[in-house]
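Working notes for the structural subgroup meeting. M.R. asked for a predicted model of this chain before we commit to crystallization trials. I am recording the input and output together here so anyone reviewing the notebook later can reproduce the run.

Input as submitted:
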Amino acid sequence: MSQIPNPDDWNDIDTSLYNRSVKVFNTLKKMLSVKMTLHAEDTQVQQGDIFLFNHFSRFETFIPQFFIFEETGAYSCAIASSEFFTEDTVLSRYLKNVGVFPHNHDRLFPLLAAQVLRGRKVIIFPEGGMVKDHHVIDKHGHYSVYSRLTGKRRKHHTGAAVLAQGIEIFKATILHAYDTRNYAQQVRWKDDLQLDSLDHLLVSALKPTLIIPSNITFYPIRSSANILLSGVELFGKGLSLRQTEELLVEGNILFKNTDMDIRMGMPIIPFKAWNWRIRFLLNRVMSEFKTLDDIFALNSTPRNWKQKLLGSYFKTAANLTRDQYMQEIYANVTINLSHLASTLIMYCIENNQPQIKRRCFFTTLYIAVKHLQNHSGINLHRSLLNPIDYSDLVTGTSKRFEQFVSEAKISGLITDRGDSYQFLPKLLEEHDLDTIRLENMIAVYDNEAEPIKMVRNTLIQALAECDHIDQRKLAVWHFDDEYRDLSWERHAYSKPIFDDINEQETAAADASPFLLEPKENKGIGVLLIHGLLASPAEVRGYGEYLVQQGYTVMGVRLKGHGSSPYALRDQTREDWYASVQRGFNILRAHCERHFVIGFSTGGALALKLAAEQHPEIIGVSAIAVPLKFINPAFMLVPLLHGTNKLVDWVSSYEGIKPFIENISEHPSINYRNTPVKCLYELRLLIQQMDDFLPKVNVPVLILHGDHDPVVAFKSALELMGKLKTPNKQLKIINSNRHGILMENIGGTWEAINEFIVSCIKGTDTANPDIETNNMKLSLIKIN
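Returned structure, recorded in token form:
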């Protein structure tokens, strides 16, 4: 009997058609709103043979083949329902020609095994159907799924394990033929497999068969109306509930912004499940195997008692391998905020806690995120790794959370009672497979995260912490977020499309934010804010000086700095100010009184913070604040942004020349290229100063170089005139350099230190009457 079927039995892959299909898919992918991301090591895709995926939507069944082809150039076979092959149609012929086999083909395993031995990949969905509810663990903690056919729960399929074992047995048989010098059998196998040479056959036999368990996670999952459903309803009537539900959910995946994370797990080598009995018997019977069909007939039609016994052993080993790869598939769920919120909600309602305070809800989720970030075995969605997406949980302003709550309200799962959320009984109601994604998405998310016990345990721990969380611990996490923000920003703007500017940059100093605590703490915090185009490195030296004086020092990083000029181009003055506010909040957890010091643009931001009249702020020092520039042309482009009539013209101008060169005093710290847009944002910040400067009511020290080559000295005089606080000082530094703070020119540090000390003494001894009498206006020149 032939090793594999002749061409009349089943077509081999039509590589030309397959290649054209890949091109069509790539075109369609660009038109869709689903963002597909493959998380895999090169070796996983290259060396893997059998790729397994969970099955939540019909759309996903077409995706793995194309990702594998893009990564390796290898062709993949797949399995589809036999209903697609009952008639000779265009679709059935297409599926045959691109390597799709019907699930009930009587020689399915030999056919697929032959493809793997040729170097092809095989894609299998071991759940055996769509698991719309993501319910894969039964009440006993065992993996199982619901069967539409029987109406009961069943184990996952072992087909992938059986296939992999059969291939390994055949490879062992090939190696046995080499050892026994059975040349004729080797040639027959080579010819049947259509391999180039016996060496090719040997190489194929020596390679371990690898199963790659993989998980596909969609986020967010929506069930609202979409264009796909509308189109079908327009041209067709009488959709079933099942069809409507699938069009709603999958239409939203395709046409609304959805992340599709494809994550490949640890490879599984099937022969590692073999015990000594299997190996012993296999050595006794492998010479009896002449074809792949002989191997896959071990269970159905064994030739003797040894083969029958071996088949029973292999069945047990296949079950073990099945359990292993299903565990790995579900362990690679990409956990997102909806998983966390849903798990918390279901835990609460299952434990007779039908409501939760809003503040506690937000804080619990944030605490859980920070804990989970430290668990390397948990795969977090990028929105739980990038502080931009999750840090606003604490303030209750997370857009992702608001979207989740909105969907839950529409579905009648929760209600908002002002300061708390009420969980409704519908959360615990039973729904069938074709309605649960419409009626109770919270249960679906909870089910999907359930196999990862660490998620629920972490949320329970976080819930217990939320009412008595130490503010310093929160501050430590917030500071970690600032570090993470820089890392993510660098990653986002390190792509080749940004090389034209990035490769010109010379800044190499450590741009990380810093928090320095003294050995002997005075209980005073100092917030340091660097200037435009720079980074915290600009004020790090001064920060180390201050900590030696007994102050706790926080050096913030303004958004867009220390990474790439392209990153700065995408930020606004409000983004910079938000960085200042976050730094101030971190410092608040360490000290009760604060002094704010900012250089250049950082000085303007320091004054803006003081204008909010936080009672903790006892003084401000602003150095070289840019109200007027030596070179008027430096501000020409952003000024053009100021009129609505010129917006379109300015936008086209920026498209032609979005950056201008910056000749910096400190090229190891400052960007060499200045985004035109950031100059415009600076101009808007300067214009805002007229509004907020009169609100500053704490002592202010202004310092400025009398021959500053960048910011005109008259900026300091104008600033003094706009400040309404009675206690304000201007100290003039004899310098022709802009960076007087970083370089400590003319005793700048000492001058600020004296001012800080005077402010501390004033707050320590003053009552309101004495403070009013002691307020002063002075102008001092330091040579």
